[in-house]
Amino acid sequence: MEFELLKEKEFRLFLDEHPLRTFMQTPEMAKVREKMGYKTYYVGIKDHGNLIAATMMGKRKAHFGLYEFYAPRGLLVDYKNYQVLDFFTKSIKKFIKQEKGYFLRIDPYYITKEKDLDGKDIENGIDNQLGIDNLIKVGFHHSREVYQQFNLMFSLNLDKTKDDLFKDFHSLTKRMIKKALENTSINIRKCQKEEINEVGKLIEETGKRKNFSYRSSKYYNDLYDEFSKQDEIKFMIAELDLEKYQEQIKNKITKLENELEQIKKQEKKKIHLEKLQKERQLLEESKKMTPNKDRQVLLSGGVFILYQDELVYLFGGNVKDYMHLGASYLLQWKMIQYAIDNNFKKYNFYGISKPSKEDGVYNFKRGFSGYVEELIGDYELPTHPYYYLEKFIHKIKN
What we know:
elongated; seven-stranded mixed beta sheet; Aminopeptidase; alpha+beta; 15 strands
């Protein structure tokens, strides 16, 4: 086996066919990270000329002339093959030392055990404990801290028809989708480059409200600039045609008022009045909405990555006051249908904090059925004594 620096094209061909492939390892993501201060390296090992393991990793200056290395969602290797993993690890360690690096951090897209909808282990399901044991055996340390990527993901396999998938959704999810579909003033569309900052602002506001991390507008623009070159990204928005929406409500009010005159029974009249009052209230609330110059009101937005056979819901945000309209549910359903129509095999709702009914983000994603993926987490490979000094200092501070 031989360790080599790889050319971008050679690495991409390997990545695109690897079972642990992810958009986080793509050259597009490498270029996004370069704008964050990283220098990119593509490295791998070959056996008789055949590439059998590789990773994209970047280095960034830390302290005392030393560098930290990070391979987002790397390494691309068979973790259960100890011989290959050991050789690759030793080779990377030697390379990083030469580059004045003091450690390598990885967070592979490598699950612990196969999970169900509620995050519980599936009996006789996939078990990658051997790979995890090997990772530690070759010198990686399991970090208790989560650096940049989620350890828990929520995904949906697209191995059914649209109708069958919809039947599996939670009753609330189905109800909200139907409600949004009936409201013909809601439009789901791909947004333009100049609208990206608006979507970024929406995600930021939602992140502050729900206490999840979000990125700067520059990051979203960098993602668009790199991934749009191969049509691997979509910024989607759900918006409301305010004039059409108000006209719909007025028509409902007129209809209910006309029907009310024909109702004789008090009990039925009371129920009808409640419906009428609700529509009048919606009309008053709509007058407080702030439309853009085209009389459209932004309801929901999302960033989606399209890589190989997976469609990823990477970021999303919603206007709190308009969530009752169900636009966020409709946006997901439209993108799931798009994924099916374009032969994607997996719809990745991306990160969740925990599979708990108290977690609103998890409950929203869980409503579309699917399953939890618990990844093995962050691992660090020390390559310099400073690594241990830094950990010691950090321990004292905390």
